[in-house]
């Protein structure tokens, strides 16, 4: 039987910083969570886990955790709400940690349960640090550290870095070595200051110029007008596919490109098949860690760049370089002031006299899941589709998240069922999988997509230019 656990306090000492505005990416994340996920904006975590090497005591684990917290302002910061949200990094203090003893055989299941449970952990940004930690003990010996960082203070890569660095600190302790030094990384407050200086103004001006051109020419929506029906309005389906995980790197190898390029082009192809659009516009999640000073930062750096992909070509192989070129533009201009972007969107919508649907998104997290890839053939266990969430509290139209492990791809699609019928979701995802499998051996004509994918759904939109 699992114990209820007990509390320990981890002390930390670090540098004070702020008050300062949120970074552009933090403002983007806060706006997205508040707008698209209003029912979870106070407890939306990036989660992770670090295994504990054998032989370490609980005190040593907590001591090394305190060292890591002291190194990263993002996990020991508080927010102040006024005309504009500001952040302040606290120089010293304590973080309460839950210590959870379990039987040794139950560790793996307990870790999974705790990671999931962090999705329902409410906290107050004004007085609580944005970090939750559970140390799992196997027969009273530390086995794993499970943690969650509030999304406004860390994106997924930031949480991975936190876990990696905790692992490095724990490994050094187990080997009797000194603490490894902190790799160079710009902290969030310093990033916010840079963004509001001359460098930031130049970056933002270039991004606004790019966005203006895209917004002035894009079709109002790829989907038809909203057709109200029974609630819940927004539904999320998940397809777990080993075949897609095997096929994607093989397609990338055939085309001498990246797996991310293949997945983006496949998304554009599926949307063309379903909607008939000649240009696909997607909000693409941009990691924004190109600056060496940001590659090891624990923080939120992701923003949503706008990528346009012309789909009026004959074959999928011809579509891939167009998708690559579009994604490179989106990444180049994927850092910007969120408030400036919102003002520009409002201006252009008023000038054109139509609302623009920027609620169609693509996020490839699978391509960075690891370098190792499966070598088995395409005869994999059957894929499994399931509905995983539904809500009335959202405003997204289409959001494809691709994530998982090297040997299994998970395709999660959130749709507005007023625009995309929920029975289209499994068809879209299985069609995506079938396209990837077909592309392993040969190119596919886009005119043949309905036959190749099995898609029979029509999501024809408002292709009229406003």
**Biggest pleated sheet:** 7 strands, mixed
Widest sheet: strand ordering: 11-10-12-14-15-9-13
**Low-pLDDT stretches:** 36-43, 370-376, 462-466
User: Could you report the average pLDDT, rounded to the nearest whole number?
Assistant: 89
Number of strands: 15
Strand residues, percent:
15-25%
Which bin fits the share of residues in helices?
25-40%
| Overall radius of gyration | 23 Å
Shape: globular
What structural category do the secondary elements indicate? alpha+beta
- Elements, N to C (H/E): EEHEHEEEHEEHHHEHHEEHHEEEEHH
Protein traits:
466 residues, alpha+beta, 7-stranded mixed beta sheet, 5-stranded mixed beta sheet, 12 helices, 36% helix, disordered C terminus
Describe this structure in words.
This protein has 466 residues and is of the alpha+beta class. The protein contains twelve helices and 15 strands. It has helices spanning 24-36, 58-71, 107-117, 156-174, 188-195, 198-217, 242-255, 259-275, 316-332, 338-352, 424-439, 449-453; strands at residues 6-13, 17-21, 45-51, 77-80, 86-89, 92-102, 131-138, 141-150, 234-241, 279-286, 303-310, 360-364, 384-391, 398-405, 408-416. It has a seven-stranded mixed sheet with strand order 11-10-12-14-15-9-13. Strands 1-6-7-8-3 form a five-stranded mixed sheet, with helices on both faces. A three-stranded antiparallel sheet has the order 2-5-4, covered by helices on one side. A hairpin with a 2-residue loop joins strand 14 and strand 15. Helix 2 crosses helix 4, helix 7 packs across helix 11 (424-439) and helix 8 (259-275) crosses helix 11. The longest helix is centred in the middle third of the chain and has 20 residues, at 198-217. The model is unreliable at 36-43, 370-376 and 462-466 (pLDDT under 50).
């Amino acid at each position: 039987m699992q114990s209820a656990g007990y509390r320990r306090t981890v002390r930390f000492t670090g540098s004070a910083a702020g008050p300062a505005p949120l970074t552009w990416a933090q403002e983007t994340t806060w706006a997205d969570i508040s707008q698209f996920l209003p029912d979870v904006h106070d407890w939306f975590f990036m989660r992770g886990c670090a295994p504990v090497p054998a032989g370490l005591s609980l005190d040593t684990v907590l001591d090394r955790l305190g060292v890591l917290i002291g190194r990263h302002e993002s996990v020991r910061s508080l927010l102040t709400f006024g005309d504009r949200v500001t952040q302040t990094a606290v120089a010293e203090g304590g973080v309460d940690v839950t210590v959870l003893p379990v039987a040794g055989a139950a560790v793996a299941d307990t870790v999974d349960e705790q990671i999931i449970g962090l999705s329902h952990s409410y906290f107050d940004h004004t007085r609580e640090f944005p970090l939750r930690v559970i140390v799992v003990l196997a027969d009273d010996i530390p086995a794993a550290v499970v943690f969650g960082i509030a999304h406004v203070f860390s994106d997924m890569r930031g949480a991975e870095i936190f876990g990696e660095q905790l692992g490095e600190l724990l490994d050094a302790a187990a080997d009797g070595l000194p603490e490894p030094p902190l790799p160079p990384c710009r902290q969030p407050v310093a990033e916010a200051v840079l963004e509001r200086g001359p460098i930031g103004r130049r970056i933002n001006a270039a991004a606004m110029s790019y966005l203006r051109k895209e917004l002035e020419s894009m079709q109002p929506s790829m989907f038809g007008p909203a057709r109200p029906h029974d609630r819940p309005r927004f539904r999320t389906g998940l397809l777990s596919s080993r075949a897609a995980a095997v096929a994607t790197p093989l397609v990338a190898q055939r085309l001498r490109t990246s797996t991310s390029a293949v997945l983006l082009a496949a998304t554009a192809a599926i949307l063309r098949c379903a909607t008939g659009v000649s240009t696909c516009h997607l909000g693409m999640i941009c990691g924004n860690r190109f600056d060496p000073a940001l590659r090891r930062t624990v923080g939120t750096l992701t923003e949503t760049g706008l990528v346009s992909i012309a789909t009026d070509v004959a074959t999928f192989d011809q579509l891939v370089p167009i998708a690559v070129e579009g994604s490179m533009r989106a990444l180049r201009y994927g850092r910007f002031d969120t408030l400036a972007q919102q003002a520009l969107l409002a201006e252009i919508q008023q000038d054109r006299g139509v609302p623009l649907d920027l609620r169609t998104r693509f996020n490839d997290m699978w391509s960075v899941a690891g370098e190792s890839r499966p070598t088995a053939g395409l005869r994999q266990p059957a894929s499994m589709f399931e509905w995983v969430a539904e809500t009335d509290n959202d405003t997204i139209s289409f959001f494809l998240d691709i994530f998982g492990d090297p040997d299994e791809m998970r395709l999660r699609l959130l749709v507005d069922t007023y625009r995309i019928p929920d029975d289209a979701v499994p068809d879209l995802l299985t069609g995506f999988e079938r396209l990837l499998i077909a592309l392993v051996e040969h190119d596919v004509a886009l005119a043949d997509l309905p036959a190749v994918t099995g898609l029979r759904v029509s999501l024809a939109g408002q292709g009229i230019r406003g």
